[in-house]
Amino acid sequence: MVERLVRHLQVPSNKAPNLEQRSTDDTLGWEKDSAKGELAKVLGQMATLQHRLLAEAQQSLLIVLQGRDASGKDGLVRHVMTGMNPSGVKVTNFKVPAGSEKMHDYLWRCHAACPARGEIGVWNRSHYEDILVPRVKNLVPEEVWRQRYRHVRDFEQMLVDEGTRVLKFYLHVSHDVQRQRLQKRVDNPESGWKHDPSDLSDRELWPKYGQAYEELLKETSRADAPWFVIPADNKWVRDLAVAKIVLAELQDMNPQFPKPPPGLKGLKIV
Ligand code: ADP
Question: Which of 17, 127, 111 is nearest to 65 (CA)?
């Protein structure tokens, strides 16, 4: 069943994702009432496999989250990483590069944030900001951001070759749902602090970001490091879709407990 979901949401290598044609409010044939229970079940299975992954300490999983403002990246981290052992999960929120980050190539901070063997790394924004933002805001000449497609493909391939699985999720929301969420954020005294005036200027650049994502997903989705377009207008769909894909990957990784040292049989601890 998950194969069908993967086929439906994965961007094939070198194929345009056709974001405009992809629904943001698809419920993927699921019912909201049963989705909560289903998510709990999936998270339980993920936790069991993560326990083994950490014990095995041979493979890593990198989960990249991208999407427009208010597309739900933070919420996804909160809902889907729940239940995992925090010792083995490394979440990184990538902000506008500052300090020593600016003094190095753009992949420097990303490489440092990669999960170690046994760990799951979650990137809330990523090296993809270094293609999107300079492009949309005309910060560097085109050849500079364009050659980064090649850099990130090679970088991710290197990670894969060295034992890291890479899954990339684009949280796809509609223009109107973004408006509703930004409005709610402003109206609620407990979330007003999250308001960033640059979210509004980025909203004005909606079509430019759309074009940039369209090309970026085509250029960088690969069988070994695929992009998935997740319908994200409904939070419950978003969470369940990502969780199911992550679970399927962990199952495929099939981590195993290391063999205990010899001589345990009959050993009595005194
Ligand atoms: P978020 O919006 O993800 O909740 P912030 O409000 O802190 O978190 O926003 C992070 C900001 O940093 C975003 O506007 C994003 O575009 C920007 N950013 C992240 N990485 C880069 C980068 N490499 N280059 C330029 N801007 C970046």
Answer: 127
